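Marked as duplicate of an earlier ticket. Keeping the data here for the record.
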Amino acid sequence: MKGLSKSIVAMLAGAFICSLLWLSLGSNDASQVREKRPVVSAMTVTPETPASIEFCGTAYDLTRYNMYEGIDRELTSFTYFHSTTLLLFKRANYYFPVIEPILKANGVPDDFKYLAVIESNLDPRVSSPARAVGMWQFLEGTGKQYGLTITPTVDERCHVEKATVAACKYLKEAYAKYGDWATVASAYNAGMGRISGELTKQYVDHSMDLWVVQETTRYIYRIMAMKLIFENPYRYGFVIRAKDLYKPIACDAVTVSSDIPDLADYAKKKGVTYADLKRFNPWLRDRKLVTGGKTFQLQIPREEEMYYRTPNTYVHNPAWTVDGNN
């Protein structure tokens, strides 16, 4: 028994010493692991959320919790949805020179160009599940109400200039009702009837104080966030060069007042493909054009303009690019 007791004591002593050694080594290993922790090479950072923003000439305080969280959500979304946001800058170089003068001529604040960005990603041919069509996303009935021609062969909701004029009519009508451009933007999304009814039912004067569906709640913040990013893309991580932007392509305008039974044949005679004719005139919705007694203008792209043989040098807004070419 004595021999057995001594053996047990020796075993326990050995185990104790091994435990001390293991703890010591483990501590050293942990220290070495900490020292060998890799240096972070890329970080995901929440974009800067300003305390206020000026929209259509009015300053809005963004420090209230719902407004702060609303703008923060959209800034984060657009900042890290890189591919789509980059594409918007490229398209804006092509379409903003068309939209901005029309807004100005109709007395609509320039900031509403960002509404078009939100509505359609600046795609004049886009169609929604609700059958809203074009850059300004008009339903057929609303489009006709504001002066757009929509027939089996023509859909002017896809005509950038004419649809922008129609949008201006709607926006000005809404402003006459509300006297506040942010509420006008909400009405563009939800409809004047819905916004007016909710303002009355909820006893508030401004759409940003309403409890409405999430799409409408987010809408004005999406527009504001897009404005912030477009005004200072580098701050939000977008490094854009002049050559990255899409260049405006010069076209010749051809007035048409009689029917064209075969647009592919017409395009061939004008020295362009049927595809190019449709791309530069997205309001053509069929293989033929029935004028119905109206006059239309077709844009025929110039052959020498349709190539990126040299880098683009036109920058609509020098603040967009790191090289600032203009």
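See parent ticket for discussion. Residues 18 and 24 are 10 Å apart (CA to CA).
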